[in-house]
Amino acid sequence: MQMRNGGPITDVAVDRTGFRIAAVSDVNCELNVWDLRNRNCLARMQNVHRSMPTSCEFTPDNRSIITTSTDGSVKSIDYECGRALITLRDHKHAVSSACLTTDGRLLATTSWDRSILLYDLQTGAYRNQGPTVLTGAHQGSISCSSMSAAGDILVTGGLDKLIIVWDPDKGHHVLSLNGHKDWVNTVKISTDERVVLSASKDKTIRLWDVLSRERMTTGTMVDTHAKVNKSKTSRAPPVPMVRGRLEYSAFVPSRLLTPMFSVNFGLGPTSKVRCLVHRKSNLIPLLVYYTMSRFS
Known about the structure:
The chain has one helix at 126-129; strands spanning 3-4, 9-14, 20-25, 30-35, 40-45, 53-58, 64-69, 74-78, 83-88, 95-100, 106-111, 116-120, 132-134, 142-147, 154-158, 162-167, 172-178, 184-189, 195-200, 204-209, 214-220, 283-284. It is mostly beta strands.
């Protein structure tokens, strides 16, 4: 399935129903929203930020989209009426990602300034007291984030190749996951909070068992002309027709789309991990499914 966007895509998001998809792009700082059922464009907004948007995320009610930008701002945009409901400018550098709890109470943002900011949107206390700041674990810019449904676990990835697991309530990190050989582009935590999915510039997808602190398996995406990765930790064959580094990933509803192709991680026929991966392109999206039931 392909849908045209105005320029190079910097992030995509799927709403909680699995029927709507949003994308932000560099050209004209665009935000676009489509209905996957009929492929209609529901919204097309330009200049949502002053410089390149870096991420987008639907709010739990699916009425707004949280966007971040290299201009250092975070916005909550009502895409139906085309205006920003909230604008935050507390980071000192480009904002790389944002994530929300399922009730929309807690918002976490990450930045190239190596900090994580937490906003309680329910009480609005950040307006007077400022956001809660988490720092000290990453040794470089933070590139991505994912939060558990209740907000008790926050996972971040960075240019330092590390994945950090945080306890937002206590305000400190509890676990560091080291294994990627290049910067981490995306992290997602599963709904049962047991598994973290990560994708990196090193062209690998990794699944981490957060409870045992071990990497469970690795899938590798390589250029079709590249040599097959024969390392013992790589149980997935190269995916055909995909070039370049892995950019983004997500656990997605099984009904979303028919897989364009599948890769078996070797964890058994009953397992079902589903992930969405796309690369920077004018076409949206490139979808890859990995299936495994123990994490559904």
